[in-house]
Amino acid sequence: MGLLIGGGGASLTIFDAIxxxxxxxxNYCEIGGNPTPDKVARLTELIxxxxxxxxxxxxxxxxxxxxxxxxxxGVIRGIIAAGKVPEETIVxxxxxxxxxxxxxxxxxxxxxxxxxxxxxxDEAALKAVDAVRAVKxxxxxxxx
Length: 144
Prior knowledge:
The chain is α/β, with parallel strands linked by helices. It has 6 helices and 4 strands.
């Protein structure tokens, strides 16, 4: 699984949560601030084109200056540029912040679910790992 993560120190928390739930990050990129959709598209394409990356999880902490809609636009463009299908590639998209409504619309147009701040980072990490497990036909777990 590839990871596009962010939120300052939360990116380490996210990475650790993926590992704790048995995930195997094959590649990751921490983004912050307010990158342009073009930059996000290039980073996403780079991540999903790595040999061991079959799925992508976008998980970020609550952010004020990162626009969720611009990240969604870039992620979708990067996946398509890599010759992949967004709904088959993205296993989790959790990015609370400004532009959430437009983010939902962008993702919905590509049949990708948006996860908001009501889902904790640890739960989002588990759901991402379980989604990869489900695709591979291995055991899926839930938080207890």
